């Protein structure tokens, strides 16, 4: 159920390249300063309250907000012009941060959790709206030949910021304090807003801006997209596949610190190397997908999906067979890079597949559902694997079992995906 080509705007390659450059710059600025701000916020809360939850508030609030606003955000994105929504979202974020800056001095100690919770709730709503609107507007920014490049470069910018932000945040916080990060975040968001205003959105069709008035209508509109996904099984399977990838990824998020520090007593060195290696792998994979735009989906999706499970099992095996600092750092680090590359290839390919094949008037709701479920599955994965690593020894065995079970899962799905890709010449 694709949109008819006649309904799509004509966007030149030159315009597409300009849009991608603007999006990459805006994405990097927002992600880089946002990640530094988030870390500085955690450090400030930890200094004031001495509670470890200071660094976990975003992980708690973001999934709750994502699920709570999944229906209205999906409907808004499919109802209103995307650029208008993005401008409103960016402006809302600036206002929320400014209010937080003006009022945070009124709170101290444990009471600081009140303005911080409100800040994170507001910025999470803004982030979800922006992410969904951007994901649904790809046909308005670039032509079909550049959709994968847009997704790849956007994820590359986010991955690079994830690597660099912690390196800068701690040092800057020590010298300049938390106020500097608030001002930096306000300036960065203003710059991102100016870049957004300069971007040209080629609208697929005239969107009638009519507010959805009743709760019943909100859920009725979202129910329509659930029916659509159920009819088009490829979307159901791709969304589930994305959830599985994120769930499995959380096993490393929990497993690395637990196995390396608690079980093997190898210290922070190997842990830092493996965490950095995963982020570097995601960055490499994001850049690598730019060169794979002409490669068929059956290869750039199925091959990394299979290899991902092999890498995670080999990482577990490394922890069991030869758990020294050198072995874990070198072999584990290399495998973590490869795992990050495979994960990045899968995520980008799935996103592009959805963006290219979902009907335009459904894309906002489908992306909202996909992103909300993906964000919510991570805390569930962290909780699940936290329990498993507490009961099963050695911890590397969990990663090996993970790889084996995932391989069986992929083998079961392979006939369906290959048949679909063959029927659609992908």
TrEMBL record:
SUPFAM superfamilies: MFS general substrate transporter. GO terms for cellular component: plasma membrane. GO terms for molecular function: transmembrane transporter activity. Keywords: Cell membrane, Membrane, Transmembrane, Transmembrane helix. It is a multi-pass membrane protein. It is found in: Cell membrane. InterPro entries: MFS, MFS_trans_sf. This is MFS transporter. The chain crosses the membrane at residues 24-46, 52-73, 182-201, 237-259, 271-292, 301-322, 328-353, 373-392, 398-418. The keyword Membrane applies.
């Amino acid at each position: 159920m694709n949109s008819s080509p006649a309904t799509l705007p004509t966007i030149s390659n030159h315009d597409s390249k300009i849009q991608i450059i603007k999006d990459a710059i805006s994405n990097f600025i927002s992600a880089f300063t946002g990640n530094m701000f988030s870390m500085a916020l955690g450090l400030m809360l930890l200094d004031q309250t001495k509670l470890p939850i200071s660094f976990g508030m975003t992980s708690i609030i973001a999934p709750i907000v994502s699920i709570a606003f999944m229906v209205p955000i999906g409907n808004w994105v499919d109802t209103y012009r995307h650029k208008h929504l993005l401008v409103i979202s960016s402006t809302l974020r600036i206002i929320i941060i400014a209010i937080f800056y003006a009022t945070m001095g009124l709170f101290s100690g444990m009471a600081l959790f009140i303005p911080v919770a409100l800040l994170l709730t507001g910025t999470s709503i803004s982030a979800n709206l922006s992410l969904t609107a951007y994901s649904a507007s790809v046909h308005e920014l670039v032509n079909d030949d550049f959709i994968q490049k847009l997704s790849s470069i956007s994820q590359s910018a986010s991955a690079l910021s994830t690597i660099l932000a912690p390196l800068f945040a701690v040092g800057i916080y020590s010298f300049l304090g938390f106020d500097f990060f608030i001002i930096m975040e306000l300036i960065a968001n203003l710059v991102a807003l100016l870049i957004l205003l300069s971007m040209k959105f080629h609208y697929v069709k005239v969107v009638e801006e009519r507010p959805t008035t009743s709760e019943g209508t909100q859920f009725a509109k979202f129910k329509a997209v659930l029916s659509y996904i159920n009819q088009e099984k490829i979307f159901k399977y791709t969304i589930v596949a994305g959830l599985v990838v994120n769930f499995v990824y959380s096993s490393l998020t929990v497993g690395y610190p637990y196995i390396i520090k608690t079980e093997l007593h190898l210290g922070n060195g190997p842990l830092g190397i493996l965490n950095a290696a995963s982020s570097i792998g995601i960055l490499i994979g994001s850049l690598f997908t730019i060169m794979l735009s002409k490669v068929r989906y059956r290869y750039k999706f199925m091959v990394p999906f299979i290899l991902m499970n092999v890498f995670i099992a080999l990482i577990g095996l490394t922890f069991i067979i030869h758990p020294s600092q050198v072995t874990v750092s070198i072999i584990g680090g290399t495998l973590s890079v490869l795992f990050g590359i495979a994960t990045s290839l899968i995520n980008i390919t799935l996103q592009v597949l959805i963006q290219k094949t979902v009907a335009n008037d459904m894309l906002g709701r489908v992306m909202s559902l996909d992103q909300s479920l993906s964000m919510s599955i991570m805390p569930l994965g962290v909780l699940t694997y936290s329990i498993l690593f507490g009961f099963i020894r050695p911890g590397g065995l969990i990663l090996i079992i993970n790889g084996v079970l995932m391989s069986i899962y992929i083998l079961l799905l392979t006939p369906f995906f290959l048949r679909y890709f063959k029927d659609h010449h992908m």
